[in-house]
Amino acid sequence: MRFLARRLSALVGVLLASSMIVFGALYLAPGSPEQFLVQGRTVSPEVLAAIRSQYSLDDPLPIRYWKWLSGLFTSDLGRSLLTQQDVGALIASRIPTTLSLAAFAAVLIIAFGVGLGILAGTRGGFAERIVIFASNLGIAVPTFFAALVLMSVLSVGLGWFPVFGAGDGVVDRIWHLTLPALALSLPAIAVVARITRTAIVDESESEHVLIAVARGLPKRIILWRHTVRNSLLPVSTAVGMQIAGLIAGAFVVEYAFTLDGIGALLVNSVQRKDFAVVQAIALIMVVAFGVVNLLVDLLYAIIDPRVRLEKGRS
Predict the structure, then answer these.
(1) CA distances for 116 relative to 10, 112, 142, 192, 275, angstroms
(2) Residue 254 domain-assigned?
(3) Primary place of residence (predicted)?
């Protein structure tokens, strides 16, 4: 519990510092909200002054930050300059698509990334060479290009999957999100497979595994209890980092497959200088990254009790 309390305190500090950076960076970027609102028209100084007063743009930056930060505790994320909708309601209508896409991609990363890495690390030979070649290819192919190839082959060519939309209902949504999730997860699957294979190969040559072999323990026990389990620490770190970055990387896939998620909303809001929406989505990404990292740290103690003992002594 002390370890959890320390990690939660650190997470709160990271979120506070990140909120300052996100809020300040947008106001340092070229352009301004009032320039977007006037749409390039020539307006009088009085109109510009009224716009700046309406959106509190004349207040000092620390005061604007405090108003925004205090609004977060009351679920008031402001109003969109583009649609005049409440930002919380606007994001809430789109976040299920992004979360479904990220969750689907996370399952693919764990299943195929870890599975292929274990296969390559334990079998060797032809299987290992195939996994290494495929992982090199997956790392080299950009996500947007992978999305285009998957659409061209599996949607347009073979007609197995739909090209656009997120679908309705559980089964239909899985069917619609299969190609986007695959495109989003391909680089991560390649990275996790390589790290898993390397961790298992290194662990299989460790002293305690060699002692288990010398004692004549069954190969299945040596593989799963000694080799695979002890190689999961670096693997869980890699999986956690890749999953944490899924929401941030989803905007490319959402744009390619015309999905109404927060990634596509972020791109549109950045282009239109819709500050309130950009700030809220950026903060959501930071929260997701921090929470996943916290879960990975807690997973360490489950995989290896020595981590829990070391944390307790620190």
Answers:
(1) 34, 6, 20, 9, 42
(2) yes
(3) membrane
Residue-wise pLDDT tens digits, 53-91: 666 666 677 777 777 777 777 777 777 777 777 777 888
Among residues 258, 238, 261, 239, the alpha carbon closest in space to that of 248 is found at: 261
Same domain, 121 and 57: no
Residues 164 and 297 in one domain: yes
With contact defined as beta carbons under 8 Å apart, do 253 and 143 qualify? yes
Are residue 120 and residue 234 in the same domain, yes or no?
A: yes
Q: Is residue 9, in this structure, part of any structural domain at all? A: no
Q: 192-244: per-residue pLDDT in tens?
A: 888 888 888 877 777 777 777 777 777 777 777 777 777 777 787 788 778 87
Range of the domain at 134: 97-313
- Cβ-contact 81, 36 below 8 angstroms: yes
> How far, in Å, CA of 114 to CA of 155, rounded?
27
Domain shared by 41 and 144, yes or no: no
Percent of the chain with pLDDT over 70: 82
* Residue 85: inside a domain: no
The distance in angstroms from the start CA to the end CA of the chain is 13
